[in-house]
Amino acid sequence: MNTFTFVFLIALFISSSIQFWLAKRQADYVAAHRSAVPDAFKSKVPLEAHQKAADYTLAKIKLGNIDGALGIIVLLLLTLGGGINTAFEYWSTIVSSPLIAGVAATATIFLLMTLVEIPTSVYQTFVIEEKFGFNKSSVNQFIKDQLLHLALGAAIGLPLLALILWVMDNVGPQWWLWAWGIIMGFSLLMSWLYPTVIAPLFNKFTPMEEGSLKDRIQGLLARCGFNSQGIFIMDGSKRSGHGNAYFTGLGNNKRIVFFDNLVNSLEEEELEAVLAHELGHFKCKHVIKMLIATSIMSLISLAILGWLINEPWFYTGLGVEQPSNAAALLLFILVSSSFTFFMQPISAYFQRKFEFEADDFAANNAKASKMISGLVKLYEENANTLTPDPLYSAFHYSHPPAAIRIAHLESKA
Q: How many angstroms separate the CA atoms of 165 and 177, rounded?
């Protein structure tokens, strides 16, 4: 057992311990505030809905803890337990081409990890979501979704993986720059193709009918100077009772999408305000800023991998006897989260900052009061807790906690 093994185990222990500790803080905090609706929401949210949100949050935390513990076990079995080493040894004896063997071994590991996660997904969907009235998916629909995800992963991911490994094998020491360019180009392509090619494989998108709601939304788009390829209603209710709205795509392939259950839940002015918030992300250049940040982090990560790939201790410290580019890439993907966990609050901080800016944009281009009433309805209908632990939310929440967000909007009303 070399020094890096101890470094990895220490990083895994510290990051996992903090995550479980934060989850306990969240559970204790939510349970302690279950008996009363927060003052800011007493006139807006009934006690029964508040308690449902608390119970829903606690159920998800329990499952999350089990899933986290299972993830640690699987990670240790794959690395120090020799799982990855066995996969690469097996495929190297079956396939003569190192490139194809590397792709096959990597795909095998990801397939195993996907299969391990299925029981958790089943329990989340058919026990927790069912219990709280959110699940609308049938068993057949669930199986179809899982198979479709696997098929897409294979059709899209395997060629990309093969290309990256080929670059690693043939380009030379600066391979990571080429790999970075390929990954970023692929990400942009997928963002452009997603609305019209990938998303319709899972859901039906119907153009919004003519009427007062469409007129109101088109008026908002005109005021904001936003061009899109259409406004669509998505049949989100066939899987879940949760509602949402978003815009997707790049360039001339942008679409605005409303979940059908969201349209049925909110008033027209509330939908206008929610969409104004989503447009705020675009107009405030949050998409570009996040893309730049992701690009920089990807470049740094690949540069680090470019150094680690030539260090024997990196492989032996993680249970792999025979170094290879494919093994290095897989190991890096699996263990990096244990070392980057401490950057999570920084990312969450900027995401929450973007949410405040998008809320300000919504307040300037729609009615802040309608944004507030729409959010309160969404909090209630989606069973989002109104009383998260402050430290937990600082680590995990991409959106500001409900009370803080509503207070911010009220200052703009």
A: 13
